[in-house]
Amino acid sequence: MKADGSPEKEFFVSMITKDIGLKRAILDLVDNSVDSFYGSKKKKKEIRIHIDSKSDKFSISDNGHGITPAIAKKYAFRFGRPSNDTLTESGIGLFGIGMKRAIFKIGKKFVLSTTSAEGSVSLDVDINNWLKKKDDWSFENLQVNKQKVSRTGTTIEINQINKEIRDEFSKNKFVDELYDEISKAHSWHIGKGLIISINDLVVEPINFQIKNSKKITPEIKKFNIDGVDVTLIVGVGGDSMEDKRYQEAGWYIFCNHRLVVEADSTYKTGWGDGIPKMHPNFGWFRGYIFLESENPELIPWNTTKTGLDLDNSLYKSLKRNHMIPAAKKILTLCREATKERRDFLAERIKDTPLVNELEKSKEISLVKLDQSENKDFTYPRFDLKKISKSIQRICFDAPSKKVEYAMKLTGAASFAELGKASFNYFYIRECEEDE
Predict the structure, then answer these.
(1) How much is the pLDDT for 95?
(2) Is the pLDDT of residue 305 over 80?
(3) Bridge-partner residues for 48, per DSSP?
(4) Tell me, what's the pLDDT at 84?
(5) Whole-model pTM?
(6) What is the pLDDT of residue 395?
């Protein structure tokens, strides 16, 4: 006798689509298209996204390698990646669920057409009909043509858009928000020549930057942990102490050049857990981690590519032994710059040489930064005694009524002004003749 442990299709579909947002689901489709260009020598690599809320249609197409008939038949439409399936080297599609999850999230019908060097494949599916066949998880009507062609690529068209998704598509800001998500996630690929467009609007990459000058240089370290190549770049960014870009401060983590962690300043990257909690005084901090492996299963990212597996031993080692020690060096500079500015405002020093150097140091794009050799973080040290003023602070208490009366007579707007006026009054009358 056996107990039935088979899954219910509708429950399964609900579960895999429930915990991923619409924009992230579309990013999964973009990720698959990006992977389709691996090893490609095409001069023009392009991914086109079209969203038409009026005609109830969504589509994404690329001119990548396409899906071969063999992969389409055995692997592409399975839920989860079989152990004997071959992963795309240095790819970002990993778990074998992203395409199906995105399609189910968006609509009720889809048509996939793909052409590879080994032939063409098409699949037309009514998801409601598929759901009714409780015990049959296969997709019928897979059309295969093994005639070889020169042009390759894949198009997915989704129709009968789900109501909540159609409502999202109808929002004025949706395309702009999707644009920003893709721009950040695939900034590296776009910077290397990949063209991604949404409704014919070409997506421009985010220019991730770090300060690099003769006197201020970022730390660059390259190493390997458990088969994953790591590049660590940490330093300073931003324009000035008053710069509102402190919201950009934190760690950025890329997995096979796909951004999965953006400006993180939480315990997940060591803040408040090895280094102090984030504070506006640390707004100069910029940290970038690039994790790369030909076997993407070794990289500690989660299934939605929105973060990392914090319990993964590789990531624990990376954070403890590399990220936290590197961050401490930058925070030392931040504290020194903050103290220098505070002393200047209190008139204890005549200048702010460190802050001045930080503000005039230019930022450089990570794409243009020379990362060929390991380098230590450097910044100039200044002897504040040489620029300090010969000033002593005087503090004393006095009865409130007398203080109020004295402020009225002197016109002082603050206790500090009254204190200066009182000292100057005494010194002029009692001390100047003795100098």
Answers:
(1) 47
(2) no
(3) 61, 197
(4) 52
(5) 0.80
(6) 79
Give the 3-state secondary structure of the chain.
CCCCCCCCHHHHHHHHHHCCCHHHHHHHHHHHHHHCCCCCCCCCCEEEEEEECCCCEEEEEECCCCCCHHHHHHHHCCCCCCCCCCCCCCCCCCCCCHHHHHHHHHEEEEEEEEEECCEEEEEEEEHHHHHHCCCCCCCCCCEEECCCCCCCEEEEEEEEECHHHHHHHHCCCHHHHHHHHHHHHCHHHHHCCCEEEECCEECCCCCCEEECCCCCECEEEEEEECCEEEEEEEEECCCCCCCHHHHHCEEEEEECCEEEEEEECCHHHCECCCECCCCHHHCCEEEEEEEECCCHHHCCECCCCCCECCCCHHHHHHHHHHHHHHHHHHHHHHHHHHHHHHHHHCCCECCCHHHHHHHHCCEEECCCCCCCCCECCECCCCCHHHCECCCCCCCCCCCHHHHHHHHHHHCCCCHHHHHHHHHHHHHHHHCHHHC
Mean pLDDT of the 182-190 span:
93
Res. 434: pLDDT tops 70: no
